Amino acid sequence: MFTGIITDTAKVVRSSLSDAGLTMTFTRPKTWTDMVLGESVSTNGVCLTVSALRADEYECFLMPETLHKASFGIAVPAVVNLERPMGVSDRFGGHFVQGHVDGVGTVSDIDTSDGYVLSVDFPMEYADLVIDKGSITINGVSLTVVNPTDHTLSVALIPHTLESTILKGLQAGDPVNLEFDMVGKYIVNIMRQRAGHAKSAKA
Q1: What is the pTM of this model?
Q2: CA 155 to CA 108: how far, in whole Å?
Q3: H or E element: which one contains 111?
Q4: Could you tell me if 83 and 39 are in contact, meaning their C-beta atoms sit under 8 angstroms apart?
Q5: Which of 9, 52, 72, 99 supports an S-S bond with 59, CB 3.0-4.6 Å?
Q6: Which helix (DSSP H) or strand (DSSP E) does residue 145 occupy?
Q7: How far is CA 171 from the centre of its chain?
Q8: Is the CATH code 1.20.1250.20 the one for domain 103-189?
């Protein structure tokens, strides 16, 4: 479980694609001295497992399903947002983030005329999961939705977020990983099941 509060960024040292999947090698943050094999790391919002570990770098392997769901299947980035799993005694500063990306959105606009507002197009099938002032995770960052439509949402980025994450480097047309609010997904799923049962009962 993650919170969407990015603690580090890392360079992608190299990547290797095969029929089995994609192996990515990242620089290891200097403070991550207790990192272990098998550990989960939120990487641009995707929960990846550490498969190889060295003094100054580590590797993760991405299966085809991950590549299908995440932006890594479209383009391998140069730098990524990182967050280690939440500890039981940690402060909860963001929202519930599983690292299970729902799909890929596309940056549609960046407005810097009054602050920094990032707009993202998302698949219309997820419209029920996007509400004004609701939570969204973009490339692993916990953010608050403003001015949503049936296929576009906007988020306002504060200076700290711009300084601490890779979001400041995004450009229009770039793909981003999206994870919609976990609680919202459960509620929508329950409502859809109830609607389906009601329709079956009437039939």
Answers
A1: 0.93
A2: 12
A3: strand 103-111
A4: no
A5: 52
A6: strand 141-146
A7: 17
A8: no
CATH match of 8-83 with 2.40.50.100: no
Which two structure tokens, joined as six digits, stand for 194? 């109830």
Alpha helices in the chain (DSSP H): 64-69, 159-164, 182-202
Q: Where are the domains of the chain?
A: 8-83, 103-189
Q: Tell me which residue has tokens 């770039």.
A: 174
Rounded Cα–Cα distance for residues 151 and 106 (Å)? 11
**Rounded Cα–Cα distance for residues 82 and 79 (Å):** 10
Give residue 115's Cα distance to chain centre.
23
